[in-house]
Amino acid sequence: MTAHSLGYAWIQEQLGAPDFLGPRRARVAAVQSLQRLPEGALLVPPRLAPTPRWLDQALFAIKHEGVHLGYLAGALRQVDDATLREAVALTPNGAYLRKLGFLWEAFNGRPIEGLDDPGIRAVYVPLFDQAEYLTGASRRHPRWRIDFNGLGDLPLCPVVRRTPALQAVLDAQVLGEAAAFAASIGPQMLERALSWAYLSETEGSYAIEGETPSHDKTALFARLLQRAHDRRPLSEDYLVELQSATVTNPFDQAVQFRTEQNRLQGDALGAAGVTYVPPPPELAAELMDHLTHLANHRPAGLDPLAHAAVVSFAFVFVHPFMDGNGRLSRFLVHHCLGQSGALPAGFLLPISVAMKKHEDRYLQALTAFSKPARALCDVTWAGDDHYRYQWRADADIWFRSMDLTEGVQFMLEMAQAALDLHLRQEVAFLGLFDEVASHINARHDLRGSDLATLIVTAFQNGGTLSNNRRKRFADRVQPAVLEDIEAAVARRMRGEPLEDKAQD
Are residues 73 and 128 in the same domain? Predict the structure, then answer.
């Protein structure tokens, strides 16, 4: 038998649907048992391969490959009532068949004809395996005895796979570490560190978009970040208010969620340059209703940082405004964390700073969904800004069941980096600054602003002062003082104690 696709890969090919699977595809292979390769491919012996029927392929997929709502919706819409009714009559208590029965009725919007009572007597089974997925609240459906435990309801149910890499960053308990860190450094140092964090997060969020903000823009966004801890639920009105606060061009400030189609455009002109088409306006508004509910009601047991990442990435893929979506999506991380109570009041992780340093990973996290989703819409260009959008008939289900695994993992890793590589380093620098400033002030008399500049520049230059910097200060700082500043910074950077020779 020649190798061929099975399960979700078979369904995807038969539907001509976008490829959201990547390497996680099942295929027949010369193996004796099911084998999962490191990149995610599933090798299946010929004897275990399902028949080329929609129901058999869907059963194989949900049993061996997890829950992929988009492909299951497409497959189950090809299964008629009689086929599913006969299957249920043979094995009414089968867990995977019950899952498909529940989803068939949900996706088709009606009960299976002629199946008034499926006759199920078995215990409830969760739709999503908690060992394989991040899950939400339990919502029991007695007809099929299914516990629907998605992160949202079916109209918007983002999916996050509990991969080993994701589990590792969840186990790191970043928010617990951040709270302990805040308590350990004392209120005065914390206030100074957070002043840096708010400014750096503002600059980082703009830098991701290739923009250097003016002083007014910086102050405006920093004030916006401080509102993240306000106990105010998300709503369309509040998001519009936030969008207007992040976008200074009055022509781009929104008064409601968008009522026209938007797109993300690359370097090329016309349709060839369109890299992503967010859902059409009516669907976007509906999805935002569900997303704001999810944002305001974090499922019990869901890590607050994972919840914030889900909301942030879902928001940017829905793209509910014509402008300002990226910056707002990053703000929503802080909003969700602020509402969670998992961090001290006013505490902010400068996540955008870390994201800017890993822009390639950020792009990878975004394109994991946006690249295959581009195939959901056929775009034609008639010149200037005249575009026509033709959507697949089943496009909505893919936006309703976005796989956000890579985005959530990325965001958790950036939160860890924001704490370990940025906030901790800033606090370490502030400690160095205080020690060096005290040491130099005990020995010499010079302007405080000059001393601060020289300490910072020596630190940034690895513990040395450049010749240009020395020349700049030569008219008001003696060479011996410059040498003492340089030596003190260098010693402190090496972890050596500062010896105040003035007291020898």
Answer: yes
